[in-house]
Amino acid sequence: MKLQDKVAVITGAGSGIGRAIAKLFAAEGAKVVAADVVPAGLEQVVDEIKAAGGTAVSVVVDVSKVQDVENMIDTALGQFGRLDVLVNNAGIMDRVLPVGECPDEVWNRVMAVNLNGPFYACRKAVPIMVKQGGGVIINTASEAGLRGGVAGAAYTSSKHAVIGLTKNIASYYGKDGVRCNAICPGAVATAIGLGGEPHLEAVSRLMKVTELSPRTAQPEEIAKVALFLASDDASFVNGVALIADGGWAAI
Ligand SMILES: NC(=O)c1ccc[n+]([C@@H]2O[C@H](COP(=O)([O-])OP(=O)(O)OC[C@H]3O[C@@H](n4cnc5c(N)ncnc54)[C@H](O)[C@@H]3O)[C@@H](O)[C@H]2O)c1
Q1: What angle do CA 52, 53, 57 make, to 5 degrees?
Q2: Which residue out of 11, 17, 94, 160 has the highest number of ligand 1 atoms within 8 Å of its CB and is therefore the one to mutate?
Q3: Which of 111, 141, 181, 200 is the most exposed place for a label (fewest CB within 10 A)?
Q4: Helix ranges (DSSP H) in the chain
């Protein structure tokens, strides 16, 4: 058990990568606070964790709302008395819109969910972790956090920014025992979609780039990376943007 009795908050836990992380962390002994804006998938994940003998509670959260996010962290403290691991994983796509065709509403929503959400959660969690003597934050970024041409302008900017946030936290709070790392998945088989009516030319370019990806991963493969980063196996790993893409970025 790599996370025995650790208290872990995971956003976007109702689907895809977050769901796989919640189940794997619970199987490794963590007490899981599963958070998502969609209640249905969330309840299912919590039921499955409990049926397997694990411990989990659900909290419905829109990570773009600061009050929701603070309530999520307070739920961890209220239910389990501490916070050891925070996984900022909830995210949305941007229809692959290039900057010249990206309306305010798409830009603002993508930033609100993909960047403001992790910021609100880190701001609330870090002082708690420092007081406890340490903790781990994992931000699900993306290969789009490192490359320019694998998503639209808003998604790409949000994921680059979340890697900056990750490194800043690592550099400042490493001395306090807080480790903060990002995962940059390549293509993963989830329900994320493109976030609405896609931009046709941008998508056709994206398809050409995606064709070079060796294969699509299952969410459980990304969850194993998160488990490594959350566990003491990664005790000296801080401030990295860890690529998990089957070799796509190496091309
Ligand atoms: N699937 C991929 O190929 C891929 C690749 C790179 C990065 N990612 C990143 O992985 C993360 C997880 O995505 P996924 O692929 O599992 O997608 P998914 O759609 O299966 O899961 C995302 C979850 O986030 C939740 N969510 C969305 N907006 C929210 C909000 N405002 N508040 C709370 N929860 C919210 C959704 O309800 C959903 O349950 C995202 O950050 C995504 O950008 C995915």
Answers
A1: 95
A2: 17
A3: 200
A4: 16-27, 39-51, 66-80, 104-111, 117-132, 153-173, 200-210, 219-230
Protein residue with its CA nearest to atom 30 in ligand 1: 62
Please identify every stretch of the chain with a pLDDT value under 70, giving residue numbers as ranges.
none
Active site residue 155: yes
Give this prediction's pTM: 0.98
What Cα–Cα distance (Å) separates residue 7 from each residue in 26, 75, 143, 150, 208?
10, 11, 28, 34, 42
Place of tokens 């990570």: 63
pLDDT of residue 89: 98
Q: Residue 32: what pLDDT? A: 98
Q: Which of 109, 9, 105 is nearest to 61 (CA)?
A: 9
- 229 contact partners, CB below 8 Å, separation of at least 6: 136, 138, 179, 181, 183, 237, 242
| Averaged pLDDT of the chain | 98
7-250 belongs to CATH 3.40.1410.10: no
How much is the pLDDT for 241?
98
